[in-house]
């Protein structure tokens, strides 16, 4: 029964994470966010083409998916399955819930398994699992972004810092490994940005915004 509960936790968290917030918000404004800018459905692309309020909404909603997958799905499923779990087993339910949400956001079944990069959703997961480590990497993100004006570079730097932040805040070996996997996935999802950074074609925040295809005049 425990194995079934783990699977159901992942599936439920995946479906929660797969809600394509950025796509839905842009669609409500008459824009297919996948056809503009980076083609990403995440908050950065929404911010660039739909403005600050929409970008903040998507950022918070995507983070909320990650937090809820850990704190609600991960905690509720053992109770629903009527399992008497240890604190270590409960930690695994929460971890599986978090990973399910990140995978759901990155590879949403509603958009042919093409989604975002998972940064905001990962932040929500980290808020629930390792808030002190999240605080450290947010500091790294802010510093790198302030110096470079590249969201992607700041996100990559924060991801690289994550496992060390988990270790510095005295997390378990399991959490250090899990955060390492999260960091690797985040960096992998930025492979296009890395290429553009190396070629000097990556967009900076505050740079000229191209016209959005399909946007209302």
Describe this protein with a few key phrases.
10 helices; single chain; 2 domains; 217 residues; mainly alpha; disordered C terminus
Give a written overview of the molecule.
With 217 residues, the protein is an all-alpha fold. The chain has two domains: 1-124, no CATH class; 130-206, no CATH class. It has ten helices and no strands. The chain has helices spanning 2-17, 21-28, 43-50, 52-80, 87-106, 119-129, 131-148, 151-168, 173-189, 191-199. The protein is globular, with a radius of gyration of 18 Å. The model is unreliable at 213-217 (pLDDT under 50).
User: Average pLDDT, to the nearest integer?
Assistant: 92
Strand-and-helix sequence, N→C? HHHHHHHHHH
State the end-to-end distance.
56 Å
Describe the largest sheet: none
Q: Low-confidence stretches at least 5 residues in length (pLDDT < 50)? A: 213-217
Number of strands: 0
Tertiary shape: globular
Structural domain count: 2
Radius of gyration: 18 Å
Q: Tell me the number of helical segments per DSSP (H or I, 4 or more residues long).
A: 10
What structural category characterises the helix and strand content?
mainly alpha
Helix content: over 70%
Report the portion of residues in β strands. Answer: under 5%
Concise overview:
This protein is 71% helix and 0% strand. The protein has ten helices and no strands.
Please outline the helices and strands:
Elements: H1 2-17, H2 21-28, H3 43-50, H4 52-80, H5 87-106, H6 119-129, H7 131-148, H8 151-168, H9 173-189, H10 191-199
Helix pairs in contact: 1-4, 1-5, 2-4, 3-4, 4-5, 4-6, 5-6, 6-7, 7-8, 8-9
């Amino acid at each position: 029964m425990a194995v079934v509960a783990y699977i159901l936790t992942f599936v439920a968290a995946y479906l929660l994470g797969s809600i394509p917030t950025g796509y839905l918000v842009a669609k409500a404004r008459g824009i297919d966010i996948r056809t503009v800018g980076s083609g990403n459905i995440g908050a950065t692309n929404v911010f660039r083409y739909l403005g600050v309020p929409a970008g903040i909404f998507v950022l918070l909603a995507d983070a909320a998916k990650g937090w809820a997958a850990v704190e609600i799905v991960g905690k509720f499923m053992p109770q629903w399955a009527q399992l008497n779990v240890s604190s270590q087993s409960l930690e695994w339910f929460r971890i599986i819930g978090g990973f399910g949400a990140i995978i759901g956001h990155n590879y949403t079944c509603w958009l042919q398994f093409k989604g975002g990069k998972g940064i905001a959703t990962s932040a929500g997961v980290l808020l629930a699992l390792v808030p002190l480590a999240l605080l450290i990497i947010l500091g790294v993100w802010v510093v790198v972004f302030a110096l470079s004006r590249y969201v992607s570079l700041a996100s990559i730097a924060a991801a690289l810092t994550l496992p060390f932040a988990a270790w510095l805040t005295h997390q378990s070996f399991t959490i250090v490994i899990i955060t390492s996997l999260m960091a690797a996935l985040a960096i992998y999802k930025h492979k296009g940005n890395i290429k553009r950074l190396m070629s000097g074609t990556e967009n900076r925040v505050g740079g000229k915004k191209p016209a959005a295809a399909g946007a209302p005049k």
